[in-house]
Amino acid sequence: MSQRELARLLSRLERSPEILQDTLAALPAAPGPVQRIGFTGSPGVGKSTLLHAVIRELRERGERVGVIAVDPTSPFSGGALLGDRLRLAPQQDDDGVFIRSIGSRGSLGGISPQASVIASVLESAGYTRILIETVGVGQTGYDVVSLADTVVALFSPEGGDGIQLIKAGILELGDIFVVNKADRPGADTLLKEIGYSLAMEPPPPTGGWQRPVLSMIASSGQGAAELVDAMESHGGWLGALPGDHPARQRRMQRELEFTLRSSVGALLDGELRGLLDSLASDVLKGDCGRWDAVARLKRALAGQLARD
Ligand SMILES: Nc1nc2c(ncn2[C@@H]2O[C@H](COP(=O)(O)OP(=O)(O)O)[C@@H](O)[C@H]2O)c(=O)[nH]1
Ligand SMILES: [Mg+2]
User: What is the strand order of the sheet 129-133 is part of?
Assistant: First the structure.
Protein backbone atom coordinates (compact mmCIF):
# COMPACT_ATOMS: atom_id res chain seq x y z
CA MET A 1 0.00 0.00 0.00
CA SER A 2 1.39 3.41 -0.90
CA GLN A 3 1.55 6.19 1.67
CA ARG A 4 -1.30 7.92 -0.10
CA GLU A 5 -3.49 4.80 -0.03
CA LEU A 6 -2.67 4.28 3.64
CA ALA A 7 -3.62 7.85 4.49
CA ARG A 8 -6.84 7.46 2.55
CA LEU A 9 -7.71 4.20 4.31
CA LEU A 10 -7.10 5.75 7.74
CA SER A 11 -9.24 8.77 6.89
CA ARG A 12 -12.01 6.50 5.66
CA LEU A 13 -11.87 4.53 8.91
CA GLU A 14 -12.02 7.74 10.91
CA ARG A 15 -15.04 8.96 8.95
CA SER A 16 -16.91 5.66 8.91
CA PRO A 17 -16.41 3.75 12.15
CA GLU A 18 -19.09 1.27 11.03
CA ILE A 19 -16.62 -0.31 8.57
CA LEU A 20 -13.95 -0.61 11.24
CA GLN A 21 -14.47 -4.15 12.46
CA ASP A 22 -14.70 -5.65 8.99
CA THR A 23 -11.78 -3.66 7.65
CA LEU A 24 -9.52 -4.58 10.54
CA ALA A 25 -10.54 -8.23 10.34
CA ALA A 26 -9.68 -8.28 6.62
CA LEU A 27 -6.22 -6.74 7.02
CA PRO A 28 -3.37 -9.11 6.21
CA ALA A 29 -1.25 -10.06 9.21
CA ALA A 30 1.92 -8.06 9.73
CA PRO A 31 4.59 -9.59 7.49
CA GLY A 32 7.05 -9.90 10.37
CA PRO A 33 7.68 -9.00 13.99
CA VAL A 34 6.61 -5.51 14.98
CA GLN A 35 7.23 -3.38 18.04
CA ARG A 36 5.18 -0.50 19.39
CA ILE A 37 7.25 1.98 21.34
CA GLY A 38 5.62 4.69 23.42
CA PHE A 39 7.47 7.90 24.31
CA THR A 40 6.17 9.80 27.27
CA GLY A 41 7.34 12.87 29.13
CA SER A 42 6.31 16.39 30.03
CA PRO A 43 5.83 18.95 27.27
CA GLY A 44 9.16 20.44 26.23
CA VAL A 45 11.26 17.53 27.46
CA GLY A 46 12.29 16.83 23.86
CA LYS A 47 10.07 13.96 22.71
CA SER A 48 9.56 15.20 19.15
CA THR A 49 13.23 16.07 18.77
CA LEU A 50 14.22 12.67 20.11
CA LEU A 51 11.77 10.94 17.80
CA HIS A 52 13.44 12.51 14.80
CA ALA A 53 16.79 11.13 15.92
CA VAL A 54 15.27 7.72 16.62
CA ILE A 55 13.53 7.63 13.23
CA ARG A 56 16.82 8.41 11.52
CA GLU A 57 18.59 5.63 13.41
CA LEU A 58 15.84 3.09 12.75
CA ARG A 59 15.86 3.96 9.04
CA GLU A 60 19.59 3.38 8.93
CA ARG A 61 18.94 -0.05 10.39
CA GLY A 62 16.44 -0.78 7.64
CA GLU A 63 13.26 -0.58 9.70
CA ARG A 64 10.07 0.96 8.34
CA VAL A 65 8.75 3.43 10.88
CA GLY A 66 5.21 4.50 11.68
CA VAL A 67 4.68 7.48 13.97
CA ILE A 68 1.51 8.21 15.89
CA ALA A 69 1.58 11.62 17.54
CA VAL A 70 -0.94 12.43 20.21
CA ASP A 71 0.66 15.48 21.74
CA PRO A 72 -1.38 18.37 20.33
CA THR A 73 1.65 20.63 20.55
CA SER A 74 3.79 18.19 18.61
CA PRO A 75 5.43 19.37 15.41
CA PHE A 76 4.13 16.10 13.96
CA SER A 77 0.56 17.15 14.59
CA GLY A 78 -1.74 18.60 11.99
CA GLY A 79 -1.62 22.34 11.49
CA ALA A 80 2.08 22.36 12.25
CA LEU A 81 3.91 25.59 11.75
CA LEU A 82 5.95 26.04 8.65
CA GLY A 83 9.19 25.72 10.58
CA ASP A 84 8.14 22.37 11.94
CA ARG A 85 7.17 21.20 8.48
CA LEU A 86 10.60 22.12 7.22
CA ARG A 87 12.21 20.29 10.09
CA LEU A 88 10.23 17.21 9.17
CA ALA A 89 10.61 17.52 5.42
CA PRO A 90 13.39 15.04 4.70
CA GLN A 91 11.64 12.30 6.61
CA GLN A 92 8.25 13.08 5.11
CA ASP A 93 9.69 12.38 1.67
CA ASP A 94 10.93 9.02 2.88
CA ASP A 95 8.57 6.21 1.94
CA GLY A 96 9.73 4.21 4.95
CA VAL A 97 8.31 6.71 7.44
CA PHE A 98 4.60 7.25 7.88
CA ILE A 99 3.34 9.89 10.29
CA ARG A 100 -0.19 10.27 11.56
CA SER A 101 -1.38 12.61 14.26
CA ILE A 102 -4.42 12.31 16.48
CA GLY A 103 -6.41 15.23 17.81
CA SER A 104 -6.84 15.59 21.52
CA ARG A 105 -9.95 13.38 21.62
CA GLY A 106 -9.52 10.84 18.90
CA SER A 107 -12.26 10.29 16.36
CA LEU A 108 -12.61 6.53 16.76
CA GLY A 109 -14.09 6.34 20.21
CA GLY A 110 -11.17 7.94 22.01
CA ILE A 111 -7.45 8.34 21.61
CA SER A 112 -6.41 4.84 22.58
CA PRO A 113 -8.79 3.04 20.25
CA GLN A 114 -7.80 5.36 17.42
CA ALA A 115 -4.09 4.88 18.05
CA SER A 116 -4.68 1.14 18.25
CA VAL A 117 -6.44 1.13 14.88
CA ILE A 118 -3.69 3.18 13.24
CA ALA A 119 -1.01 0.93 14.70
CA SER A 120 -2.77 -2.19 13.41
CA VAL A 121 -3.15 -0.74 9.91
CA LEU A 122 0.48 0.40 9.77
CA GLU A 123 1.74 -2.96 11.04
CA SER A 124 -0.30 -4.76 8.42
CA ALA A 125 1.24 -2.49 5.78
CA GLY A 126 4.73 -3.57 6.78
CA TYR A 127 5.81 -0.88 9.22
CA THR A 128 7.97 -2.68 11.74
CA ARG A 129 8.42 -0.02 14.40
CA ILE A 130 5.48 2.06 15.58
CA LEU A 131 6.50 5.09 17.63
CA ILE A 132 3.81 6.71 19.74
CA GLU A 133 4.49 10.20 21.08
CA THR A 134 2.31 11.29 23.97
CA VAL A 135 2.25 13.99 26.58
CA GLY A 136 3.18 13.15 30.12
CA VAL A 137 1.63 10.90 32.65
CA GLY A 138 -1.62 12.10 34.14
CA GLN A 139 -2.67 13.72 30.91
CA THR A 140 -4.33 12.30 27.84
CA GLY A 141 -1.20 10.49 26.73
CA TYR A 142 -0.97 8.18 29.67
CA ASP A 143 -3.37 5.56 28.43
CA VAL A 144 -1.93 5.62 24.94
CA VAL A 145 1.38 4.47 26.31
CA SER A 146 -0.42 1.35 27.46
CA LEU A 147 -0.67 0.31 23.80
CA ALA A 148 3.09 0.13 23.64
CA ASP A 149 5.24 -2.95 23.97
CA THR A 150 8.09 -0.77 25.10
CA VAL A 151 7.73 2.47 27.06
CA VAL A 152 10.46 5.09 26.91
CA ALA A 153 10.12 7.66 29.70
CA LEU A 154 11.84 10.99 29.09
CA PHE A 155 13.11 13.49 31.61
CA SER A 156 15.17 16.63 31.36
CA PRO A 157 17.09 18.66 33.89
CA GLU A 158 15.03 21.70 32.89
CA GLY A 159 11.72 20.24 33.92
CA GLY A 160 12.27 19.84 37.66
CA ASP A 161 11.22 16.28 37.02
CA GLY A 162 13.32 14.74 39.77
CA ILE A 163 10.81 15.05 42.56
CA GLN A 164 7.77 14.32 40.42
CA LEU A 165 9.15 11.01 39.32
CA ILE A 166 7.80 8.76 41.97
CA LYS A 167 4.43 10.41 42.29
CA ALA A 168 3.81 10.10 38.61
CA GLY A 169 3.88 6.31 38.62
CA ILE A 170 6.16 6.44 35.63
CA LEU A 171 8.77 4.34 37.37
CA GLU A 172 6.42 1.43 37.17
CA LEU A 173 5.45 2.12 33.59
CA GLY A 174 8.80 2.84 31.98
CA ASP A 175 10.97 0.15 30.39
CA ILE A 176 13.72 2.55 29.34
CA PHE A 177 14.54 5.85 31.01
CA VAL A 178 16.14 8.73 29.15
CA VAL A 179 17.57 11.91 30.58
CA ASN A 180 17.44 14.24 27.61
CA LYS A 181 19.22 17.57 27.32
CA ALA A 182 22.39 16.09 28.76
CA ASP A 183 24.07 19.29 27.56
CA ARG A 184 22.21 21.19 30.30
CA PRO A 185 23.32 21.57 33.90
CA GLY A 186 21.80 19.09 36.32
CA ALA A 187 21.60 16.20 33.88
CA ASP A 188 24.10 14.03 35.78
CA THR A 189 22.29 14.56 39.08
CA LEU A 190 18.98 13.66 37.50
CA LEU A 191 20.50 10.56 35.95
CA LYS A 192 21.69 9.43 39.38
CA GLU A 193 18.36 10.27 41.03
CA ILE A 194 16.48 8.13 38.56
CA GLY A 195 18.99 5.31 39.05
CA TYR A 196 18.54 5.49 42.84
CA SER A 197 14.76 5.61 42.58
CA LEU A 198 14.73 2.54 40.38
CA ALA A 199 17.08 0.69 42.70
CA MET A 200 14.89 1.54 45.71
CA GLU A 201 11.72 0.33 44.05
CA PRO A 202 10.76 -3.23 44.66
CA PRO A 203 11.55 -5.08 41.44
CA PRO A 204 8.56 -4.94 39.08
CA PRO A 205 6.38 -8.03 39.38
CA THR A 206 7.20 -8.83 35.78
CA GLY A 207 10.90 -9.06 36.49
CA GLY A 208 13.75 -10.04 34.25
CA TRP A 209 14.36 -6.74 32.48
CA GLN A 210 17.04 -4.42 33.81
CA ARG A 211 15.65 -0.96 33.09
CA PRO A 212 18.41 1.16 31.61
CA VAL A 213 18.81 4.87 32.34
CA LEU A 214 20.37 6.57 29.33
CA SER A 215 21.50 10.09 28.72
CA MET A 216 20.92 11.84 25.46
CA ILE A 217 21.20 15.07 23.55
CA ALA A 218 18.27 14.69 21.21
CA SER A 219 18.97 17.93 19.38
CA SER A 220 22.34 16.61 18.17
CA GLY A 221 21.34 12.96 17.94
CA GLN A 222 23.91 12.01 20.57
CA GLY A 223 22.81 8.82 22.33
CA ALA A 224 20.23 7.86 19.70
CA ALA A 225 22.05 4.67 18.71
CA GLU A 226 22.25 3.55 22.37
CA LEU A 227 18.55 4.28 22.83
CA VAL A 228 17.63 2.29 19.74
CA ASP A 229 19.88 -0.54 20.96
CA ALA A 230 17.96 -0.54 24.25
CA MET A 231 14.63 -0.48 22.42
CA GLU A 232 15.70 -3.44 20.31
CA SER A 233 16.92 -5.34 23.38
CA HIS A 234 13.64 -4.79 25.15
CA GLY A 235 11.66 -5.84 22.07
CA GLY A 236 13.80 -8.96 21.79
CA TRP A 237 13.42 -9.75 25.48
CA LEU A 238 9.64 -9.32 25.35
CA GLY A 239 9.30 -11.27 22.11
CA ALA A 240 11.19 -14.23 23.52
CA LEU A 241 8.85 -14.55 26.51
CA PRO A 242 6.08 -17.12 26.34
CA GLY A 243 2.59 -15.68 25.81
CA ASP A 244 1.53 -16.53 29.36
CA HIS A 245 4.46 -14.70 30.97
CA PRO A 246 3.24 -12.05 33.47
CA ALA A 247 5.03 -9.27 31.58
CA ARG A 248 3.08 -10.02 28.41
CA GLN A 249 -0.15 -10.67 30.27
CA ARG A 250 0.09 -7.34 32.06
CA ARG A 251 0.75 -5.49 28.83
CA MET A 252 -2.20 -6.99 27.04
CA GLN A 253 -4.45 -6.53 30.05
CA ARG A 254 -3.42 -2.85 30.24
CA GLU A 255 -4.07 -2.35 26.54
CA LEU A 256 -7.54 -3.88 26.66
CA GLU A 257 -8.44 -2.04 29.84
CA PHE A 258 -7.39 1.37 28.59
CA THR A 259 -8.96 0.84 25.20
CA LEU A 260 -12.26 0.13 26.91
CA ARG A 261 -11.88 3.05 29.33
CA SER A 262 -11.14 5.29 26.42
CA SER A 263 -14.23 4.09 24.54
CA VAL A 264 -16.43 4.73 27.55
CA GLY A 265 -14.94 8.17 28.08
CA ALA A 266 -15.50 9.05 24.44
CA LEU A 267 -19.15 7.99 24.65
CA LEU A 268 -19.67 10.15 27.73
CA ASP A 269 -18.10 13.06 25.88
CA GLY A 270 -20.03 12.32 22.70
CA GLU A 271 -23.26 10.39 22.19
CA LEU A 272 -24.22 10.36 25.87
CA ARG A 273 -23.41 14.01 26.56
CA GLY A 274 -26.99 15.15 25.91
CA LEU A 275 -28.47 12.50 28.18
CA LEU A 276 -25.91 13.30 30.88
CA ASP A 277 -26.77 16.99 30.73
CA SER A 278 -30.52 16.47 30.82
CA LEU A 279 -30.25 13.96 33.67
CA ALA A 280 -28.19 16.45 35.65
CA SER A 281 -30.97 19.02 35.23
CA ASP A 282 -33.58 16.43 36.17
CA VAL A 283 -31.73 15.56 39.36
CA LEU A 284 -31.42 19.23 40.29
CA LYS A 285 -35.12 19.81 39.62
CA GLY A 286 -35.98 16.84 41.79
CA ASP A 287 -37.50 14.91 38.87
CA CYS A 288 -35.09 12.02 39.24
CA GLY A 289 -32.81 10.66 41.94
CA ARG A 290 -29.07 10.58 41.39
CA TRP A 291 -28.84 6.82 41.55
CA ASP A 292 -31.71 6.52 39.16
CA ALA A 293 -29.87 8.90 36.83
CA VAL A 294 -26.73 6.79 37.07
CA ALA A 295 -28.71 3.63 36.38
CA ARG A 296 -30.22 5.23 33.25
CA LEU A 297 -26.76 6.32 32.10
CA LYS A 298 -25.45 2.82 32.61
CA ARG A 299 -28.24 1.36 30.51
CA ALA A 300 -27.65 3.91 27.74
CA LEU A 301 -23.91 3.21 27.91
CA ALA A 302 -24.44 -0.52 27.67
CA GLY A 303 -26.67 0.02 24.64
CA GLN A 304 -24.09 2.20 22.92
CA LEU A 305 -21.22 -0.17 23.69
CA ALA A 306 -23.20 -3.12 22.36
CA ARG A 307 -23.84 -1.21 19.11
CA ASP A 308 -20.13 -0.42 18.51
N1 LIG B 1 19.61 21.91 24.84
C2 LIG B 1 18.84 20.96 24.36
N3 LIG B 1 17.64 21.28 23.87
C4 LIG B 1 16.86 20.30 23.37
C5 LIG B 1 17.29 18.96 23.36
N6 LIG B 1 16.30 18.20 22.83
C7 LIG B 1 15.29 19.05 22.52
N8 LIG B 1 15.62 20.31 22.85
C9 LIG B 1 14.79 21.52 22.68
O10 LIG B 1 13.72 21.48 23.60
C11 LIG B 1 12.54 22.08 23.05
C12 LIG B 1 11.36 21.15 23.15
O13 LIG B 1 11.57 20.02 22.30
P14 LIG B 1 10.39 19.14 21.73
O15 LIG B 1 11.03 18.02 21.00
O16 LIG B 1 9.41 19.97 20.97
O17 LIG B 1 9.71 18.63 23.07
P18 LIG B 1 8.34 17.83 23.29
O19 LIG B 1 7.32 18.81 23.73
O20 LIG B 1 8.63 16.86 24.40
O21 LIG B 1 8.00 17.13 22.01
C22 LIG B 1 12.91 22.45 21.62
O23 LIG B 1 13.26 23.80 21.60
C24 LIG B 1 14.11 21.57 21.32
O25 LIG B 1 14.96 22.14 20.36
C26 LIG B 1 18.60 18.66 23.88
O27 LIG B 1 19.05 17.50 23.92
N28 LIG B 1 19.31 19.70 24.37
MG1 LIG C 1 6.30 17.02 20.88
Answer: 97-101, 65-69, 129-133, 35-40, 150-155, 176-179, 213-215
pTM of the model: 0.82
pLDDT of residue 93: 61
What are the per-10-residue average pLDDT scores of the chain (308 residues)?
88 82 87 92 88 94 92 46 39 77 68 84 95 67 74 85 57 89 93 88 73 96 97 93 82 78 78 93 95 95 84
Q: Given this model, what pLDDT does residue 66 score? A: 95
Gap from CA of 219 to ligand 1 centroid (Å): 7
Q: Which ligand is nearest to the CA of 87?
A: 1
Q: Which residue from 42, 10, 53 is spatially nearest to 163, judged by alpha carbons?
A: 42
- Rounded-to-integer distance, Cα 121 and Cα 21, Å: 12
The answer to whether domain 3-242 has CATH 2.40.50.140 is no
User: Could you state, in order of their start, the residue ranges of all structural domains in the chain?
Assistant: 3-242, 271-307
Instruction: Pick the ligand that lies closest to the CA of residue 72.
Output: 2
What b/e readout covers 37-74, taking b as 16+ CB neighbours within 10 angstroms? bbbbbbeebbbbbbbbbbbbbbbeeebbbbbbbbbbeb
Ligand 1 shell residues, CB under 6 Å: 41, 43-49, 73-74, 180-181, 183-184, 217-219
